[in-house]
Automatic annotation (TrEMBL):
Its EC number is 5.3.1.1. GO terms for molecular function: triose-phosphate isomerase activity. It is found in: Cytoplasm. This is Triosephosphate isomerase. Substrate binds at N9, W10, K11, G175, S215, G236, G237. It is an enzyme of class 5 (isomerase). Belongs to the triosephosphate isomerase family. The keyword Cytoplasm applies. It comes from Polluticaenibacter yanchengensis.
Amino acid sequence: MRKQIAAANWKMNLTIHQAKELAENIINAPIDLKPDQLVVLGVPFPYLAPIQKVVGDKAGFYVAAQNLSNKKNGAFTGEVSAEMLQSLGIQYVIIGHSERREYYNETNGVLAEKLNIALEYGLTPIFCCGEPLYIREEERQNAFVAEQLKESLYHLSAEDVSKIVIAYEPIWAIGTGKTASSEQAQEIQAFIRSELTTKYGAEVSESIPVLYGGSVKANNAVELFGQKDVDGGLVGGASLIATEFIAIINSLKA
């Protein structure tokens, strides 16, 4: 059975005190994770080690970086390498979030390089894809997402691509309060899986978790996660509120 994942993306928010308090509230909450369920906290770079310490060896809980460099090392001031993350014991990294694409001009080619280096250092990428509003309005979302997959993923072997988590995020639903309907989420996530099946075969595609990311909240998580091809969520704003995120975790498919 595919992993069911509740992944938090705290983005550029919280002080270290607030971050520790939030993590502690989540870690200490009455959450009964099944063997195929896990929680990933995507925290700002300065908080990786402190939050890793809070999480400790709590079963099913992990810390993720929100980004990494496409370079191994060198004179790249302000960048963070895969090796640095590995040395901290970090196991997950978010790659290709729409904000990185939009604000920092990260192309599909650059993201392919980031995937390569993450996998080389044993990190599990949470690879984000998804369309902006004008693409959705023109009903070209399938072709748009297919191109993202092709240019960033399809150079990978079946073995390597099976190590990746995919997060579909309709950009028009991030931070806007708009949410794709459960039917819309299922439709495009089934399409993503069908594209992976065409490229890598059913066995590989059926093993890859595909998350939904776009205004996931406690009051819509059960319906979204109940869809056949929705394997959890990449959660932004709601992950900053302990009670909300705990309810989202508890909404994962049993």
